[in-house]
User: What shape does this take?
Amino acid sequence: MKRTGYVRAAEASDTEGLAQLMTFLGYPVSAQEMEQRLPGLLNDPIYQTYVYEEDGHLAGMIGMMYSLAYHTDDSHIRIIAFVVDSAYRGQGIGRALMNKAEKWGQKKKATRLTLNSGNRGDRQQAHSVYHHLGFEGKATGFYKQL
Assistant: This one.
């Protein structure tokens, strides 16, 4: 089946669809919480959020930030959230979103994309997708609650 959707920049009116996608990703959030959170992300030029919309439904999203580094002169794009609704997976939507992220990174003169993903067993399919999209697993992340 040919896709009829398209990638576009997220808008303030996308709060409900983005909340649903965050829940699919494993981070439950209400539309009201997303409504509070989203303006800060949309109005800060170091952040960019794209959605894949099909027939008025948000089928996927990618949220990222531009970042400088201490250890190199190269800048990079850190993908913070990347998800496709399970009903739409395997249809090229993730690739379309990632292509848009790469274009944004090139526009910002970044030299690489980075992302973190959990080591849980339920993330293995996602890891396979990341490898398929050209990512290499190179680091281990450590986290400390403040």
User: Anything to note?
Assistant: The mean pLDDT is 87. Strands lie at 6-9, 47-54, 57-67, 76-84, 112-115. Helices lie at 15-25, 31-42, 93-107, 124-132. The chain has four helices and five strands.
